[in-house]
C-alpha cells in the first residue's frame, strides 16, 4: 500500500456499514478519502475519530446523493479542485428494499439473504431506487472517474464495485429478485469495463467485491426491527464490514501488473445452497 500513500480515493455510501469501514481503512493507510454520503454529519464524526486516533490519512466529508447526476459531477469537481483529483473510486452506495415483482399487494417476502417474513409489494419508487442507486449511479460515477483520470494522464487508477453474491446466482427469495438483478448488472458492467479498458490499452484496474451477508444497517433499512436484525446477525453466519475493507486493501495493494477482477466472500459456515 506504500505507493498509495497520499493519493486520493472517493468512497460512496461512506456514512455507515461497508463504506465507513473502507473509508476508515484507507485513511489509516495514509490515503486522502473523499467520503460521499447523504448523511454528511456521520462522515464528519468518522473523520473526527480518525484525527483523534492519529491516522496518517484523512477523510474529507462531502454531502451527496449518488442518484443525482449533478451531485456526482459536483463531487468529482470538488475533488479535483481541492485534492487534485481522485486515483481510486469505490462504488459502495447501494439499497435493497424488498420488492415483489408480480403484485402491488403486500405479502410475505424475504430480506436479502435472510428467509424472514416482511410484507412488501411492487412499489414503483422502490424498484426505481434500486436501479438508480445500484446501477445507474455506479455507471455515471465510473464514467466521470475514468474520463477524469484520462484527462489528467493518470493510468494506474483503480475502480472498485461493491457487488454481492446475489449478483452471481438467482437466489430463491421472493422480494430479492430486483436487488439481485441490479447486482447481476454490476457483474456484467465490471467485465464490460475491463474489456473496454483493455481496448484502450489502459492500465486502470477494476475489481468487483461480492460478499454474502454482512453485519450492517441494511436489514433495518429493509424493514426489520433493530432487535430482529441483531438476532438475525447473531444467529446466521455473517461477515463484518472490516472483512470487506481488508479485501479491498489486498486488491489495491497488489502490483500494477496484477488484475484482481473478482473477490467473492462467504462467511464460514454459510449454507448458500439453501438460498438457491
UniProtKB/TrEMBL annotation:
UniProt keywords, alphabetically: Oxidoreductase
Keyword hit for Oxidoreductase: yes
GO molecular function, one term: oxidoreductase activity, acting on the CH-OH group of donors, NAD or NADP as acceptor
Species the sequence originates in: Cloeon dipterum
Protein name as it appears in the record: Dehydrogenase/reductase SDR family member 11
SUPFAM superfamilies given in the database record: NAD(P)-binding Rossmann-fold domains
Statement: the UniProt record of this protein carries the keyword Metal-binding: no
Record-linked Pfam families: adh_short
UniProt family annotation: Belongs to the short-chain dehydrogenases/reductases (SDR) family.
InterPro entries: NAD(P)-bd_dom_sf, Sc_DH/Rdtase_CS, SDR_fam
